[in-house]
Amino acid sequence: MGLSLQKGQSLSLTKKDGGALTKIRLGLGWDSAAPVKRGLFGRAKAADEIDLDASAIFFDASGKVLDTVWFQQLASKDGSATHTGDNLTGAGDGDDETILVDLSKVSPAVSQIVFVISSYTQQSFDMVENAFSRVVDDSAPGSPEVARYQLTDSGTHTAMIMSKVSREGAGWSFKAIGNRANGRSVMDLLTPAAQAL
User: Fold this and answer.
1) Which of 46, 173, 192, 194 would give a disulfide with 181, using CB separation of 3.0 to 4.6 Å?
2) Total number of domains constituting the chain
3) Model confidence, pTM
């Protein structure tokens, strides 16, 4: 288990031996909130399936959007990042959607990558629980988890600015953001993501 981060906390992505993480996996997961209403004959009503989408937005040092990675564009233009595919339900344990990033291949023009989740069907976060964002070191044997940010904020918003990785000297750092937003896809979240730089 990686370091548990609170909203606003940062972590250097430097290994104990001083080397930098090169290949990371951003995993995002969620579950449907437990149903509170009972259906016919007092049976527990089945939880709604929650379709959230994980996306990455690449910014330059001036805050200009350079690229996006999401379910309609599964790879970044510089070849550094790959979205592994759309999960329509959030069912199952662990990561529901993942974005693989080879930090050594990120364009030098990119200074920060912001990770967001949004509901294309406009389901709100009062229907979501156990949402998290985590960083896994895919350059190390066994792919250990480096950091995890557990989201505890529910509400009527339909998107979240979850986390970001930023250039820090010769390496990178990870920061838990957890800002509320609204939007159906990554294209609706460019402005609120820029506000988190």
Assistant:
1) 192
2) 1
3) 0.87
